[in-house]
Amino acid sequence: MAIDVLRLGGLSFTDFSVPDLIPGGGHQAMVVHKLPGGNRVIDTLGRDDNDIVWRGQFFEAAALNKCVQLDAMRMAGKLLTLTYAGQSRQVVISQFIYSIRRFPMWVEYAITCTVYQQQPGTSAADSSAADAAASNDAAAGNNAANNAINDPNSVFDTGTTPFTETQTGGQQITPGTTVTGTQPVSP
Questions:
Q1: Which of 27, 50, 120, 150 is the most buried (most CB within 10 A)?
Q2: pTM exceeds 0.85 for this model
Q3: CATH number corresponding to 6-125
Q4: Any long-range contacts for 66-71 (C-beta under 8 Å, 24+ apart)?
């Protein structure tokens, strides 16, 4: 029987320090648009992993030293590799609390790790409709900008009605003319 290892950064949890339970999973980030008549449009935005939270105790000569090391990792706020149950995640320790039961050998702890990203190959692909839509919008915007640079007249609506002399207060408008002091015109 293989023995599973719980490791966070460079620290291994062994013997009594291994928790009885480590939750996993998460949510699908989404926006639900409720339409008249009860219809819905759902925009999925990708995975939203739950924090990984567990409790345990260190019961060994180096118990307090391990807690001080974990607290230093929390204060540093750096990405760490969390490995357990044959899985690996990049996490940041968002909370670490410890309580000394019997100095220096028995220390209870609770830790919360916020998942930054899963390692490749441990979950389904992360592509989403939002990513595709953002890419399409960016490409369309880039094309419009390139068209405007190459042909400045392409940004003007050619189907508009030109101003008449009556609408401009009697001023003759020609291309390049600046019109000032115009009055709103009722149709």
A1: 50
A2: no
A3: 2.40.30.200
A4: 66/11, 66/17, 66/107, 67/96, 67/98, 67/107, 67/109, 69/11, 70/8, 70/11, 70/96, 70/98, 70/109, 70/111, 71/96, 71/98
